[in-house]
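Async update (no meeting this week)

Hi team, since we skipped the sync, here's where things stand on the single-chain job. The sequence we agreed to prioritize is pasted below, unchanged from the tracker. I ran it this morning and attached the output directly underneath so nobody has to dig for it. Comments welcome in thread, and please keep replies under the output.
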Amino acid sequence: MDDLDILVTNDDGIDSLGFHALYDGLSEIGSVTAVAPADDQSAVGRTVSQTVTVREHDLGYVIEGTPVDCVVAGLSSLCPETDLVVAGCNQGANMGAAVLGRSGTVSAAVEAAFHGVPGIATSLYVPSPEWEKASEIPSESYAAAVDATRYLADRAFEAGLFEVADYLNINAPTTDICTGEMEITRPSHVYELSSRQDGDQIDLVNPIWEKLADGDIPDPEGTDRRAIVENRISVSPLTAPHTTERTEVLADLAAEYSLQ
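Output:
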């Protein structure tokens, strides 16, 4: 698409390194406007505010709110001419079906889809041993994630990709370990989040991250986490409406219902 207008947002805040890497990369293929949170909004999901404050920024706009706030404000008020919403690049992967509704990054792409605008969510996988040093991740580590996003954003419209998918969820390993291969995946349904109680404290634990670091995961071939653990770029084409086909069992139950 010529003269592509791209709204870029994230959930790490407008000052994050991954956001600037993605903004710069997408500026090579279109006109980019930032509409991003003022500070970290990680894991807020599709939280939406009633009122937000906006101020101008060198890259576009800063919103005192969530990623969903940014998308709504951007598409409805600040830059309604937007062709594509891209969220990221998140510091930390957003993989697995259970994470899709929890991630602020993915939620921004989902919100765009509900507004009738295609979306892309892009995240960088940081192995567990490196996560403790996440603040030291260099900008070049985002190169594979940015390149994959730019490539798909540049070609998706002409190829008709967004006629069959509402949004894409991209996860990429750091550039130094990325094979350069892109794999079409589905979100893994393996779920291991649990809790551990010690007196009046309950810790939520997710062993999947340690398993990823060890390369020993239960996720099958074709899933996002399997691609990542094998150092490939994962792209999951997804749809936004949360619907299912008519279920006759429920239809029968509904037909037999009477108000007590």
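Quick observations from my side:
The domain at 4-255 is CATH 3.40.1210.10 (Stationary-phase Survival Protein Sure Homolog; Chain: A,).
The first strand starts at residue 4 and ends at 9.
Reply here if anything looks off.
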